[in-house]
Amino acid sequence: MSSIAESTTDIIPFSRLVRERSAKSHRETEGASFMGDLLAGRAGRDDYVALVSQHWAIYDALEGAEPAMRAVPLVAPFLSPALTRLPTLEADLAFLIGDDWRDRLELVPATVEYATRIREVAAEWPAGYIAHHYTRYLGDLSGGLHIGEVLARQFGFGTNGVGFYLFDQIADPSAFKVQYRGQLDAAPWPAGEQERVVDEVLRAYDYNTRIFQQLGTSTLAA
Ligand code: HEM
């Protein structure tokens, strides 16, 4: 690793470094047309159901690893039951698809790769798990809240079907994010680890972008 990168991570708080270094990847994910189409009303209910299905697989991997991650001192401070999304995703899928939703889930290849990668880092490299935790949950607490409101209006769902976007145990998402960033800054990262974590965040964004691209071609074009 270069000395420039090392000195940069010394000066800039890690939370700011991650945010700045991933800004381009965030813009790419945000700019993927699938989300834009969904938000602008150019996509259908099936496209939304496809997105919820991908989320289920991602959070199944993330939250399935949580019990093991709780035992890792570096990771434990980031975990909060208020973030847990899997039960809401399952309720959303039951509402959207029916009680047999598990038999009818369709995953695009990037989702399968993403979930596999999350399980891999959870097993082998807990700091990498934080990268995935950050990318999903801070995103959900940011643009995700607005996305949920637009989609609920779009499809006339009320709160059924969009439970994923509602964090009813987090009264102040901005304050939660400030606290989370403080944890990123205070974590006792082993030497060189911050750079690797930033790279893993970029990888996480890339999975998300590819999921949007694959959903776009597999459903909207059909
Ligand atoms: C149309 C799609 C999206 C929109 C409109 C959007 C919008 C936003 C906005 C406005 C913020 C800044 C909030 C703030 O400053 O407090 C934000 C932050 C964030 N977004 Fe997104 N986003 C989208 C998709 C995504 C996706 C797919 C991910 C990754 C899974 C993601 C991950 C993040 C993260 C991690 C942050 C927090 C950055 C930080 O403060 O460290 N976003 N998003």
Structure, explained:
This protein is 71% helix and 0% strand. The termini are far apart. The relative contact order is 0.19. With 222 residues, it is mainly α. The longest helix is centred in the last third of the chain and has 28 residues. The chain binds protoporphyrin IX containing FE (HEM). Protoporphyrin IX containing FE binds next to helix 2, helix 3, helix 10 and helix 13.
Task: Name the features.
222 residues, 71% helix, binds protoporphyrin IX containing FE
Describe the secondary-structure layout.
Blueprint: H1 3-11, H2 14-21, H3 23-31, H4 33-39, H5 45-64, H6 66-69, H7 86-96, H8 101-104, H9 109-124, H10 126-140, H11 143-155, H12 173-186, H13 193-220
Helix pairs in contact: 2-13, 3-13, 5-7, 5-9, 5-13, 9-10, 9-13, 10-13
Bound molecules: protoporphyrin IX containing FE.
Shape descriptor: globular
In percent, how helical is the residue content?
over 70%
| Poorly predicted runs of 5 or more residues | 1-7
Structural class: mainly alpha
| Strand content bin | under 5%
Using only C-alpha atoms, the radius of gyration works out to 17 Å
Name every ligand kind in the structure: protoporphyrin IX containing FE
Average residue-wise pLDDT: 92
Supply the number of helical segments. 13
Q: What is the first-to-last residue Cα distance?
A: 46 Å
Strand segment count: 0
Q: Let me know the largest β-sheet.
A: none
The arrangement of helices and strands along the chain is HHHHHHHHHHHHH
